[in-house]
Amino acid sequence: MLQIKKVESLEQFSELKQQYITQTTAPLDGMWLCGFVPMAAHFGFYENEKLVGFCCINGAGYLLQFFLCSENQDQSALLLGSILSQNNLPIEKINGAFASTAEPQYLSLCLDNFSNFKVNSLMYQLNKKQEAGQEHKLPLTVVKSEQLAELIDFAKSNVGAPEQWLTGYYTNLINRQELFGFWKKGQLLAAGESRGYDEYQTGYADLGVIVSESARGKGLATTVLKQLITITETRGLIPICSTEKGNISAQKAISRAGFIADNRIIQFDI
Q: Which DSSP helix (H) or strand (E) runs through 124?
């Protein structure tokens, strides 16, 4: 049996993480890959003191990633079964897992070990390009640092995101010039983002839109998304996006912008 150790520094997982990304069938959702996964507890799998794999588990006890290098893949089922049976002291009780359909090896292991599952989110890739001149172009502008407080208040009031998290998240987007706003008569009606990657999925960018409650139902989200597609492609990146299964209005806007949901994020529960 492989040895399992909790690891605080994620730098040593860089090569294995790259291998993990390489065996996926589609780009992974950016919020999970760059937001939730880095915040999770990471455990290394060792054979004769050599790091050959890893897993990460969030604070609620849900497995987010599980990987063994090709030379040790034949041990995957036995190792995960041992972890779920709590036979390995460094890892506490597992309550479930999140896996996407773009992660076939990890997903297959989850299907073998968890009987209860449901769709959590839809993952989109661009299906057709926007035709030039077809849509009215909004005056989207890059958000500046002095507008940070306004964007934070906007997101808090319209989607309920926590201020502390928004401060760090939006500051990073502003520094990278990846956050955009649409103002009309001095009122902020929509915020959009095109988030690039520093490593792994460097050829992609995740798109996101927040529309003011007062401006919803008028096609504004779709129009903003289409303009974000143009901005993203101009930067030489491929746009992707996602939304929760229950967010029907977002799904409609995303589909109208030319995206198709080829993959899903699945939640597994014990």
A: strand 116-126
- Domain of 34, CATH number, reads 3.40.630.80
Record the pTM: 0.91
Instruction: Note down the domain range covering 109.
Output: 3-114
Strands of the 187-195 sheet, one edge to the other: 3-7, 41-47, 50-57, 62-68, 96-100, 259-269, 116-126, 238-244, 204-211, 187-195, 179-184, 141-142
Two structure tokens written together for 203 = 């050829």
- The last residue of one of the domains, among 53, 79, 114, is 114
Domains in the chain, number? 2
187 and 249 assigned to the same domain: yes
Residue-wise pLDDT tens digits, 61-95: 999 999 999 999 999 999 999 999 887 678 888 99
Distance CA 15, CA 107 (A): 21
C-alpha distance from residue 225 to each of 31, 135, 179, 189 (Å)? 17, 11, 13, 14
Domain boundary among 75, 94, 114: 114
